[in-house]
Amino acid sequence: MHTCILVSHNKSRLVYDAIDSVVAQTYKDWQLVLIDSGLLYDKLKKEYKDERITFVKSPETEETRKEHAMGPWCFNLALKEYVKGSTISYLCDDDVLYTRAFTIFTKFFREHPEAIAACARIDKVVLSEKGNMKQVPTTIPRVLGGKCCNGIVMDKVYDYLQLTHRTSLLQYMSEWWPIDRQTEEHHDGIFLERIGS
Q: Which of 2, 5, 36, 184 is the most exposed place for a label (fewest CB within 10 A)?
């Protein structure tokens, strides 16, 4: 099984596309852990009856939001309590996946049993206020990454959408996603560097 963690926080008009991109996956043995800030929790539970979706109402408070970066805080909550799959990927409410994403992830790990994490290429689409979309190609990581192996720098370069890792990797890490508000703009790069270490 593959687990995808989706954090929905203040972009309620976009989250439906994100959920639908998971439901449309060609690989069917998945679990979606959807952590909602509370804006849509009841509505989403009524609209999506798929048993593969685990709905979680974020237990955050006003104080939590002041102290921590909420996206990574929610990712850590899901990792600690809800993940059932042997591999994990991440999604945010303003992102969507290609329909073959989970198929490609699981095939890679089946063919490479020694791999514990992988970075893939993503295409970024920028949506303007007028509703126009522009696709921005990204680079394909072809070499080892991370300071730990004198590889390419991951922090502030790669995005969490490019990452899939085995669940077993988490047991080797003392910290997962950084939740400090000062790291909010690049928490995914820090997480990637921690994985490399």
A: 184
pLDDT tens digits for 119-171? 776 655 555 556 555 555 555 556 566 666 666 666 555 556 778 999 999 99
Phi/psi for 126 (5° steps) reads -100, 130
- By C-alpha distance, which of 62, 93, 63 is closest to 75? 93
DSSP per residue, 36-77 = E-SSSHHHHHHH---TTEEEEE----HHHHHHB-HHHHHHHH
List of residues 6+ apart from 192 with CB closer than 8 A: 119, 145, 146, 154, 155, 158, 160, 163
Q: Dihedral angle at the C-alpha atoms of 179, 181, 186, 188, nearest 10 degrees? A: 20
Instruction: Reduce the DSSP state of residue 112 to 3 states and report it.
Output: coil
At what angle are helices 187-196 and 70-81 packed, to 10 degrees? 40
Q: What residue type is assigned to position 94 of the chain?
A: D
